[in-house]
Specification:
Layout lengths: L7 E5 L5 H4 L3 H8 L7 E5 L2 H9 L12
Parallel strand pairs: 1-2
């Protein structure tokens, strides 16, 4: 059972200007049909930013240190 009945979608881009985020909108609209409460989803503007997040331990594909 989820603690909260929401899902979170994180839009990852270099800034939050409309022109920058607009290319993510088709993916966002497709994702809205498939999201499940309690999950966090990430949409990246490009693979470079996705890889940077992964190396920093952020995002869904982060290199996490196992306890």
């Amino acid at each position: 059972m989820e603690i909260f009945d929401i899902a979170v979608i994180v839009l990852r881009a270099y800034d939050n200007r409309y022109e920058t985020l607009q290319p993510l909108m088709p993916s966002l609209l497709n994702l809205l049909d498939a999201i499940k409460p309690g999950n966090v989803y990430y949409l990246y503007i490009d693979d470079k930013l996705k890889e940077t997040d992964r190396r920093k331990g952020k995002g869904p594909e982060a290199d996490r240190i196992q306890p």
